[in-house]
Amino acid sequence: MSSRLFAAALALGGLSVGQTTGNFNFLTYNVAGLPAIINNNDVPGDKGTNANLIGTILATQKYDIVHMQEDFNYHAYIYATDNHPYRTPTSGGVPFGDGLNTVANYDWTGLVRKKWNKCYLNSGDCLTPKGFSFMRMKIQSIEVDLYNLHADAGSDQGDVDARSAGIDQILAYINANSQGRAVIVAGDTNDRWTNAGRSINKLTDAGFSDSWVQLIQGGKFPTAGATANPCKVPAADNTCEIVDKVFYRSGSSVKLTAKSFNYIPEVFVQPDGNILSDHNPVLVEFSWST
């Protein structure tokens, strides 16, 4: 085949040679999939119907990567209407699964699920194997290590200690498995920067950037113990703070840059305008270069 024909074939196939820059979007969303008999999450409507709608919206919006938390007993309803080509298999409903799933337009290898070494009974945190998942995803011509987490909930000292231990655990895993690699850590941290006993600062101390702090707060971290500015659901704007976070760092050969950050509750609504979850979905646009 001549070089001209080879180039034409690549173009028709949507491929590129030596691609050194690109973009992708990333969504994290706690989908409130606990059984309704345990927690209705103060969300109107039937949970199965709402989960169907979440799947439909994921398919329609064609997000590149979606991390979900609390994807427990209505997982099949989401997957019935979502059409992403790559989707993690469920680890089970309550009390067997961790509720962590990912759907994406890109393939991955090495899916691992890890239970937190420490949990605290308050808020039912020990009723399911909460923890984090890991995968290595091929995004266009780069690889990014992705971590999806759901941290211990609650405000008792036992909760604070369990969250801190969880951050230590995931950082140890990152240090052992993602040295020198581009990494995104996202999910439900059950923590805010204003919490007096916060532990998410350990991630930024380890070299990660918080996309909300960087893009919305101008790089200024809220003070621990300061008056909180929590978001309602739906969030009125991006300046309030939620527990759902997207942290990232570059690698030795891949530079990641967060270009935009938005809460998008207006996208995930029922036909009558009601919310689909008691969490705001978070959308971050990334660019990359090598």
UniProtKB/TrEMBL annotation:
Signal sequence extent: 1-22
Ranges of residues in domain Inositol polyphosphate-related phosphatase: 58-223
GO annotation (BP), single: phosphatidylinositol dephosphorylation
A molecular-function term among this protein's GO annotations: sphingomyelin phosphodiesterase activity
This protein's record includes keyword Signal: yes
Alphabetized UniProt keyword annotations: Signal
One GO cellular component term noted in the UniProt record for this chain: cytoplasm
Protein name per UniProt: Inositol polyphosphate-related phosphatase domain-containing protein
Species in which this protein is naturally found: Fusarium musae
